[in-house]
Fold:
Amino acid sequence: MRSPEAIFNCANPSTGASPRRYAGAVASWTEVGDRVFVRRYAFYDQNIGVVLGDRSALLVDTRLSHRQADEILTDLRSITHLPVGVVVNTHGHSDHCFGNHRFRPASIWGHERCVTMIEQTGDRQRTGLARLMPDLAEELAEVVLDPPDRTLTDAATVEIEPGGRSVRLSYLGRGHTDNDIVVEVPDADVLFAGDLLENDATPYFGDGFPIDWPATAERLVELATGVVVPGHGSVGDRGFAVRQMTEFRTVAELARLIHDGRLDLDAAILRTPYPADAAREPLERALAQLRGELD
Ligand SMILES: [Zn+2]
Structure:
């Protein structure tokens, strides 16, 4: 059973004391590959991606509310006047899909369980967030939950426009959630990893499957030949993906030692790659998975 708090925020590794924010440079689009752009928003330190075709654009993730989605639409005008024809939700957490409705009539792609997650937990995510961030209650109340209408189970090739540039969507296994997908832009060697990778802060494990995550990250590393865009934090490369994979392995290995009675939790916390105050949740979630409680 998940608490509402467990699904409120995929960027914040702790229990939600303060939302993660990026205090760096003023946000602007960065072209990370040929006509592939990333904008790093201060709220949740979140990355939004855009892949331009000839007649329309593809958007990766839609942020937390209609107002935040409208900010994307406004910001897009500085790089293109093409309409957004296709949207991809990397998973069903609020900050990746609550803006969906503002991009219709675009097709919206996601994993089949992303649809399930939005349908089954969307209102609970909304309520939990509004309680934690009362300033956002009004704009969260405006959100029309609008799950993907185009789904995949394992993989799909999606054309931005008929006969035009295409991207590859792949489900690589459970990790940050049970419905994460990655977006490859083969002609630009860019990989959008969603929250399977997060940079500059401890990844969020609250809805995760820490025992499966290392193998999922290994598959991701195989695809990470060029630029790697995490769901949150700085854009990285293959080396960044490998480091995160190694850290996920460490968490899973420590959890197995605890589960087997060879290490206690407090000692294990000090051996994770994460700050001690953020390490308990990954280990407890991994232990819950080892006890079979997440299936
Ligand atoms: Zn997330």
